[in-house]
Specification:
alpha/beta, 7 strands, seven-stranded mixed beta sheet
Length: 202
């Protein structure tokens, strides 16, 4: 079922009144998901730029450059750049977030649709590569990026867990391997959203 959050907020009480939904004090509890953590940021909103800058001050941050390489090469370069962090179990950030002038230059060179498709393909390849290397906790920023990552990882259903910031919860995938996913669009979340999300799973 999909709808606006205003409609969704009223549904649980209706289900309880009809005897279809029992009261549960642990409804937001999620199973523990051990494994490495990665942040993938694809949106270029002002909020996203601030979130990327905040995490980059204390963690490895790798930028994807769609003008320098195709999707396969971008993903391969990013995987190589975070190899030491993966080995040490440290969270890291891979992003395509850029200032408006940089985004415009990429779109002018490649075309708007081709630029977006190249970035989404790179994130999809990167997500699969990270999962193969033991990453089980993904913070993914950007609507199109989230869709590309979820599809690449074969996720078809999610259990909704605790809220990180208003409108953005942690979730876990159903099936194996179990993944923890925080999926959000452009302007959601505070400046420290990435760090806050990672801290919640410690």
């Amino acid at each position: 079922m999909t709808a606006g959050s205003g409609i969704a907020l009223g549904l649980p009480q209706n289900f309880r009144a009809a005897g279809l939904l029992p009261d549960r004090g642990d409804a937001a509890a999620l199973p523990d998901v051990p494994g490495r953590a990665a942040v993938l940021a694809g949106s270029c909103s002002a909020a996203r730029q601030a979130q990327v800058a905040a995490m980059a001050r204390t963690h490895t941050a790798v930028a994807l450059d769609p003008l320098a390489a195709d999707a396969e090469a971008m993903a391969a370069r990013a995987l190589a750049a975070v190899d030491a962090d993966l080995a040490a179990g440290r969270p890291f950030l891979v992003y395509s977030t850029a200032a408006p002038a940089e985004v415009a230059a990429v779109q002018q060179a490649l075309g708007r649709e081709q630029a977006a498709a190249r970035i989404e393909d790179a994130f999809a390849r990167l997500a699969r590569g990270l999962a193969e290397r033991g990453v089980r906790r993904f913070v993914v920023a950007g609507g199109e990026t989230s869709g590309a990552v979820v599809q690449a990882l074969g996720v078809t259903a999610l259990a909704i867990g605790p809220q990180i910031d208003p409108g953005v919860p942690w979730t876990t995938s159903l099936g194996a391997p179990r993944l923890a996913l925080a999926l959000k669009s452009g302007n959601f979340g505070a400046t420290d959203f990435f760090l806050k999300a990672l801290e919640m799973l410690r």
